[in-house]
Design a protein that fits this description.
Number of strands: 12
Order of helices and strands: HEHEHHEHEHEHEHHEHEEHEHEHHEHHH
Length: 371
């Protein structure tokens, strides 16, 4: 352990020596969007970039989105070529916006005039993450050396309750967590009708049947009880499966009423869904914005409650709509009665602003005070 920590400290010192040379660059009016979640800008980034171009055209915009694989070889070798690009843009940008944990944001010593904004890549945190799940002593030591989630000037949250969760997950005081929301809130509200038209054109059968969207969170143990769910739906329903791209689900079904809809993302498909099935995913919070029936398929609830743990008590919010068994869940959906007041209360607690102006307010907060 001591040797590993020593090597990490040497590595951090080495990187900061190199970075000190990059910091000789003059700071420009530039916003640097950085992500390792996807290989292209997210909907949040796209909306923010559009707003900046509209309201602050004097700012240059640069984005570097490169999905990082988790295995050590890929992280330190295959993807390390992006490091110098990051250093260069961090050294001369006025603002950096990130949507997840980035090692170099945390370990590098940045210029004081660089503002770093963490918007995170989910609308909230149903399950625990960040400093909440670092429990073992050796992991805590490593996280401390790597300065996990440090150097943020502000963290963006979607509500007061979300901000309270972020205090625990990121380890920041409440004055650093700003309750504005994510641009995707605007997208969900403003793109609903247009998304319906696009999807119905591609899948006209969706118009005449009840569409159920199943969007679970990613599981490290690859334990997905999909067949159990599929087998319970008859042909009166369309079941759309939106799982993590790393999972091969083509071999799991042969029914004509099961769809993948790879042309559309989960937020787009939300527009045509009559009801949604999820679990510990923050997608439940996004679903609440359109106030649609929401069911939870949590066959591993007891296991998940222990590791990684939950920030939100699903049974408290959705008693009667949380299931461990697929047959009970589908029976409830077929019953047809749903208390939408539960979804409304959930939304009010975790999404404060649904006025369609989140992106505008967010960019004004980030850039407005610099004008």
């Amino acid at each position: 352990m001591r040797f590993m920590i020593f090597i990490i400290k040497i590595y951090i010192t080495f990187l900061n020596v190199i970075y000190s040379l990059f910091k000789l660059n003059k700071t420009k009016k530039k916003v640097f969007f950085l992500s390792r979640q996807t290989n292209k800008p997210s909907i949040d980034y796209e909306l923010m970039i559009k707003e900046i171009k509209k309201e602050y055209p004097n700012y240059k915009i640069v984005f570097l989105t490169k999905k990082i694989k988790k295995n050590p070889f890929s992280f330190f070798i295959k993807n390390n070529y992006t490091l110098f690009k990051q250093m260069y843009h961090l050294s001369n940008s006025e603002i950096c916006i990130i949507d997840g944990y980035n090692l170099y944001i945390s370990i590098l010593k940045h210029k004081k005039n660089l503002k770093i904004i963490q918007i995170w890549h989910a609308l909230g945190a149903v399950k625990k993450f960040g400093v909440q799940i670092i429990k073992k002593p050796y992991a805590q030591k490593i996280a401390k050396v790597l300065k996990q989630h440090q150097n943020y000037n502000y963290i963006i949250a979607s509500s007061k309750k979300t901000a309270e969760i972020y205090e625990k997950t990121f380890g920041y005081s409440k004055d650093k967590i700003i309750e504005i929301g994510m641009p995707r809130i605007d997208y969900i509200l403003n793109s609903d009708s247009n998304n319906k038209k696009k999807i119905y054109k591609k899948y006209p059968k969706f118009k005449n049947k009840k569409v159920v969207l199943y969007a679970p969170t990613f599981r490290e143990n690859n334990n997905y009880k999909i067949n159990e769910l599929i087998d319970k739906f008859n042909d009166d329903y369309i079941l759309v499966l939106k799982l993590h791209p790393a999972i091969n689900i083509e071999l799991l079904y042969s029914r004509k009423n099961i769809y993948l809809c790879k042309e559309f993302n989960t937020l787009q498909l939300l527009s045509v869904a009559d009801c949604i099935i999820t679990d510990y995913s923050a997608f439940s919070i996004e679903t609440s914005i359109l106030n649609k029936p929401l069911y939870f398929y949590v066959y591993d609830y007891d296991e998940y409650l222990k590791d990684p743990g939950l920030n939100i008590d699903l049974n408290k919010y959705f008693r009667g709509y949380v299931f461990k068994r697929a047959d009970n869940l589908v029976e409830k959906i077929q019953n047809g009665n749903y208390n939408l007041e539960l979804v409304k209360k959930y939304r009010e607690d975790y999404v404060s602003n649904i006025n369609g102006d989140v992106t505008q307010k967010l960019i004004k907060f980030i850039i407005g005070d610099k004008q």
